[in-house]
Amino acid sequence: MNAMTELGLYRNLDEMAPWNDRLQVLEVIGVTDEAPDVRTFTFRSDNQTWFRYKPGQFVTLELPAEPAPVMRTYTLSSSPSRPFSIAVTVKAQAGSVGAGCSTI
């Protein structure tokens, strides 16, 4: 057993529940500029859960926009083999409601 496990900072998958969008929210942990107007947003759960999905699956996110939040669906661009975070890669479209959001 290594020091990180002994301190309780990391848990095994079988000690954790899978992420449930009705019970937990996502937290942005990284934003990567891929190209002009293209960013990858990386998320983790706010409750030490893991993600179970297949390549090509999607997530619907609530974007902070005015006058009211909007819902947008994005294909997951992260690998299911890394279950502790998920990522979406987004290209801003001129004039779209989400284009003004600096972060998702």
From TrEMBL:
Protein name: Ferredoxin-NADP reductase
Pfam families per UniProt: FAD_binding_6
Cofactors named for this entry: FAD
InterPro entries tied to this protein: Cbr1-like_FAD-bd_dom, FAD-bd_FR_type, MRET, Riboflavin_synthase-like_b-brl
Family annotation (SUPFAM superfamilies): Riboflavin synthase domain-like
Range of residues in the leader sequence: none
Domain FAD-binding FR-type: 21-104
